[in-house]
Amino acid sequence: MPSKAEKLLEQMRNSKSSWKRADLDKLYEGFGFIFSHGSNHDVVKHPDFPQLRATLPRHRVLAKGYVEFAVKLVDKLLELQGQK
Predict the structure, then answer these.
(1) What is the pTM of this model?
(2) What pLDDT is attached to residue 40?
(3) CA 41 → CA 11, 35, 38, 59, 77, distances in Å?
């Protein structure tokens, strides 16, 4: 049975629009990414694969590109973990 994060990833693959920052936070957290807070943006990194990182603004509604990048980043993580 897929986890909440896996379901969210599938929904984001199907539609890149109208997602909020909280949704991306749930996605990243669900796949084990950790957050560090900068002055204007937050940075997410995966502890096992530090090359997997993203910068997120603190806006409530995000541009489509942030969602597209998140999906690609999680797909890369799954590939590195041998799940894809």
Answers:
(1) 0.91
(2) 82
(3) 25, 10, 5, 9, 22
